[in-house]
Amino acid sequence: MAEQALRALVAEELGRAVDPRVAAIAIAIAARHPTAQAVLYYGSTLRDARLDGLMLDFYLIVGDYRAAFGRAWLATANRLIPPNVFPFEYNGLIAKYAVLSEEDFARLASSRTRNVSVWARFAQPSRLVWAADDAARNRAIDSVTQCAPALLRAARPCLPDRIDPLDLWRGAFALTYGAELRAERNARAGSVVDAEPARYRAFTLAALQAAGLSARCDADTLTFDHAVSAGERRHGRLLWARRRREGKALTLLRLAKASATYAGGIDYLAWKIGRHSGHAVTIRPWQRRWPILGAITLLPRLVAKGAIR
């Protein structure tokens, strides 16, 4: 029952209309890949409702990697270090899309993984812009419904027993931002919530109940029925420390892989870091020629400058 209430909220949000240009890009992305099942739109351009001059973010969900790519090495790369990410340009707009199979999407959206990347992103607002059919649409909704409970379940040991509902989400997202190499400033996790406070308030109790966390909300205070013990908090901190180590290592692997699978990937990396951190990043000609080595040598300098954390 609790999950059904959350699923209804998720389904309504995913089904909201998008700019027709976003829908056109989603259709074009799906058309590139056999076995395409769904295309989800998320990220800063959805929050800001601005498209021109910015990069739009999509996830393409496919039935089978080998059929979707037609090339064994791309399918293997997507299986071993998901997702593959590709640039896309359509009708004057630029975008990127990440590819996951339905199986991997369902797994990475759930508490079955310590990897935060999918459940952190899709605990935030998104839109299901295109689906192959009703069955594919329902499977995508089911996976996205897992994301907010996975986020809050993981964050709970590190959060107070009494907390403002918006601070609940801010704290949870701050933990996930710390578990990846990020170019965004420290305030980014809060700004994500502050962009749609009413949405997060509406999702709070349903997401907590679906996560198996009982709580009550009076005015602006959320009180958990079960106080977290010192042992549970210690275990939670250790688990998040492990997520940070694994997440940052995985980000490095993805960046190295993207240098081979993403045309102009090192230039995109520089653009994104510059946009979010305010640090200008210069790419040398040899780094474009040897992008994997270039990315590896670039990262220590960026960390030292504080451009990524």
Structural class: alpha+beta
CATH topology of the largest domain: Beta Polymerase, domain 2
Shape verdict: globular
Number of helices: 16
CATH 2nd-level architecture of the largest domain: 2-Layer Sandwich
Task: Let me know the largest β-sheet.
Answer: 5 strands, mixed
Main CATH class of the largest domain: Alpha Beta
Strand content: 15-25%
The termini sit apart by 40 Å
Could you name the CATH homologous superfamily of the largest domain? Beta Polymerase, domain 2
Helix and strand topology:
Layout: H1 2-14, H2 20-31, E1 36-42, H3 44-48, E2 55-62, H4 65-69, H5 72-80, E3 84-90, E4 93-101, H6 102-108, H7 117-121, E5 126-131, H8 134-145, H9 147-155, E6 162-163, H10 165-178, H11 188-194, H12 197-210, E7 215-218, E8 221-224, H13 230-261, H14 265-277, H15 285-289, H16 291-305
Parallel strand pairs: 2-4
Antiparallel strand pairs: 1-2, 1-5, 3-4, 6-8, 7-8
Task: Give a structural overview.
The chain folds into 3 domains: 146 residues, Beta Polymerase, domain 2 (2-Layer Sandwich); 90 residues, no CATH class; 65 residues, no CATH class. The N and C termini lie far apart (40 Å). Strand 3 and strand 4 form a beta hairpin. Helix 1 packs across helix 8, helix 9 packs across helix 10 and helix 13 packs across helix 16. By secondary structure, it is an alpha+beta fold. Strands 3-4-2-1-5 form a 5-stranded mixed sheet, sandwiched between helices. A 3-stranded antiparallel sheet has the order 6-8-7. The mean pLDDT is 88. It is globular and about 55 Å long.
